[in-house]
Amino acid sequence: MKVVVIGNGMVGYKFCEKLIAKSSAEKVEIVVFGEEIRRAYDRVHLSEFFSGKSAEDLSMSSTTWYEENGVKLHLGDPVQSIDRPTKTVHSYKGITENYDVLVLATGSAAFVPPIPGVDKEGVFIYRTIEDLEMMQAYAKKAKKGAVIGGGLLGLEAAKAMLDLGIADTTVIEFAHRLMPRQIDDAGSGILINKLEKLGLKICTNKNTSEILGENAITGMQFTDDTKIDVDMLVISAGIKPRDELAKLCGLEVGHRGGIVVNEKLQTTDHSIYAIGECALYNGMIYGLVAPGYEMAEVVASHLVEENKSFTGFDMSTKLKLIGIDVASFGDPFVASHECRTVVFEDTMKGIYKRINITDDGKYLLGGILIGDAEAYNMLLQTAKNKIVLPPNPEDVILGSRGGESEGGAGVLSLPDEAIVCSCESVTKAGICTAVAEQGCETIDAIKKCTKAGTGCGGCVPMVKDLMVHTMKAQGKYVRNVLCEHFNYSRQELFDLIKMHQLKSFDAVLDKLGKGDGCELCKPPVVSIIASLFNEMILVKGNDTAQDSNDRFLANIQKGGTYSVVPRIPGGEITPDKLIVIGSVAKKYNLYTKITGGQRIDLFGAHLSDLPAIWEELIDAGFESGHAYGKSLRTVKSCVGSTWCRFGLHDSVSFAIRIEERYRGLRSPHKLKGGVSGCIRECAEAQSKDFGIIATEKGWNLYVCGNGGSKPQHALLLATDLDSDTCIKYIDRFLMFYIRTADPLTRTATWLNKMDGGIDYLRNVIVNDSLGINEQLEADMDSFVESYKCEWKEAVENPNIRKRFSHFVNAPEEKDPTVVFEGMRDQKKVKDWK
Amino acid sequence: MTEEKIITWLPACNTHDVPVNGGVCVKYHDQQIALFHFSRRGEWYATQNECPHRKQMALSRGMIGSQEGEPKVACPFHKKTFSLVDGHCINDEDECSLTTYPVKVENDMVYIGFTEENGRDTEGILA
């Protein structure tokens, strides 16, 4: 069978890839004609061309792909005519090829509205790499830009204008909102707000009547009698299917364009197929890449006699527009009398979420997400597969608030045929089979085997969950082994290192691992050693196994200088100590800032200055703040009963006692604490790994809270404790966490993964259900007794101290590439890139 | 290959100036070279000190290790990893490669080799 493909765009290429995967080269001969001079490239990410990607980076395949797979490729040679009676095509360069099957993947062209003056210099369309190259050349002399079209492509083009350095760009949309096909008025409002913050000007309800200028564009006139100055314009107002070849050879086309196809994507001539944006199915053009791929799949299947049909495609989309998440799925605009809608709007953060649910509140019909589209995949699957919503449907966009159960439906509730990866249309069953039957037990293996997760990557977390669940269902013990050098989880290593009393990374590797170690296993192993034995972290060759911040006992910052954070327990500091910090900062020319943890950060210290800086700080009574370590950071406190008229207990004294108890404690991730003197919670203790709030009778202890990117409130572990009991519980809690958590897992995530959750944890800590509390307390006591300030040890040990220089062969010289600039009477580092 | 090139050897430092399984930065005119002692493998490597990703002079402070037997260094900034053997970026195929330099040890002295391709001996002080 000889297959001729007209068009070498994303869909045309995908078709070849799929057909080759389904058949053998002996059986199928493929010839491709492409109009552009380049091999098929990723048009979806076209704007990345301006942010530094080359044409080659965007290419869909390697240079040799076509040759290796026996595909004859004619580039820069569009087909001029199709002769259906003889089944031949004739190209511009005079090539004639006959075909058994002809596939039209001619795509679309930009739709240019008939506005007087569109032919002026400085007016561009946004479609191909050639268009981009022309824009790039012209943009150098342009200052004021405009884009006609506020849809998907128009906003992409606006991003391209920003990337080209035209900061003053106006987006002109004819409709009264942006992305009228995908989002509603309120969503558009939020989006406009965000885009305006990025410097774009947005005009909706604007109809261009004329493009002004002699030869080149100088301005635009609108029908409402306003005009603007513009010296570069991009038109991105929609697409027009490329159906001229089809029309020429007598195939049926729609009256507004598009080649009419049936559910097998056959045109009115059954040996000719049309796929992608040139095809008109059921009166609709599918202008997205995913349905185009699905069409390619249907035709490729049909040709090898598999039975698949195209029955329309969900036009749900999720994308990042200039860094802003925008998604719409299912039916985003159901009229309100047919359903109920739940809307969440946060104009502060620029987040808008809308879901449309059935009258009975059981099923999800569709929705819109702007500013935060993390839930997109799950919501799309919930809508598509008619999964019953939780009792409070708003949980699916807001998350579960209060209570202990997970909000929304989990990945397990999806039916087997649910599409998990929509870029490559891989189903849940496809992924589970790959895991269970083909032995794919890593994400990489699943990617290789099924292609799931290789497109936009948005489904990878779901794929991972499916993998873990499938393996567990098979009775496999799913362990998070550290890396190729250790076939143990962190928890197993912790016990083994303790049992064998191994005190250096090399000793651990010799006894328990293989190879040379790497950046994945070294930091957790030396962290375990530090948690267990509490020896100076830079001795016994462990220095080079520490993460780079630990290795130099400071936080590396842009430019390669470091920041210095002395410990200020509970945030309490004397005026004299403040003066010392000020004079040290002045002497070493450091930028100073108050941190979120109630202490002071000194930035911009050269590596070779660190020991001298610390010597002065230590002389004044400071000690390391461990801001560089996966260890206790701060215990934040409110001012408490000593000054505050509402305070119940002295939160500052208690915070200092706790901070001094756990200072320097190495753990799987950083640790933060807080103590509030009353229920007003000014110390924000419930956002910490352990938080303490005063009650009339004592202290309430909360654990496993988190701020950061995934905020989570801490959960109540025990109530009305006296101070000593409270500390005892924290001892147990922290040691249990250090023993059992995976590397780089905060307490919140650790608890989320724990079978039985907070009830189980409470049982261990409060009721001693594992009988280990005595041990946990003893471990903590021995840690507390052996605490030493590691910076003091570092400055006093000449062997450690000499590592703090930039050049080994010129220790007195500083890195000459470090450059500072002034800002608000202080310095800042020169920005990178 | 290398036998045909003219190599200028810079005496960089003493072997014990370099931490075991770690790196240091060596100054050579206006160039910065990261020198690594991979003690576990008994090997020495040298690369440019600048990480091509964000142009930071930091690779000498990076952590070394291996991946499927290939020795590598991870940049402290964003954990891009590079082969110590040929300098290519292991975890991002779009990233630029590092320049690498030959290293030899004689009488506890570590030497880094410069050729016409990998560096310039602008003042001729090494000859």
Largest sheet of chain A: 5 strands, parallel
CATH architecture of the domain at 2-108 and 241-303 in chain A: 3-Layer(bba) Sandwich
In oligomeric terms, what are we looking at? heterodimer
- Overall 3D shape of chain A: globular
Structural class of chain A: alpha/beta
SSE string of chain B = EEEEEEEEEEEE
Compute the number of helices of chain B. 0
CATH topology of the domain at 2-108 and 241-303 in chain A: FAD/NAD(P)-binding domain
User: Structural class of the secondary elements of chain B?
Assistant: mainly beta
Going across the biggest sheet of chain A, name each strand in turn: 3-2-1-7-19
The count of β-strands of chain A is 39
- Percent strand of chain A equals 15-25%
CATH hierarchy class name of the domain at 2-108 and 241-303 in chain A: Alpha Beta
Fraction of residues in helix of chain A? 25-40%
The CATH first-level class of chain B comes to Mainly Beta
The largest sheet of chain B, given as strand count, sense and whether it forms a barrel, is: 4 strands, antiparallel
Low-confidence stretches of chain A: 402-409
Commentary on this structure:
- The complex is a heterodimer of chains A (833) and B (127).
- Chain A is built from 26 helices and 39 strands.
- In chain A, β35 (690-694) and β36 (699-703) form a beta hairpin.
- Helices cover 30% and strands 21% of the residues of chain A.
- The two termini of chain A are 52 Å apart.
- Chain A is of the alpha/beta class and 833 residues long.
- With 127 residues, chain B is mainly beta.
- Helices cover 0% and strands 45% of the residues of chain B.
- Chain B contains no helices and 12 strands.
- The two termini of chain B are 21 Å apart.
- Classes of the chains: A alpha/beta (833), B mainly beta (127).
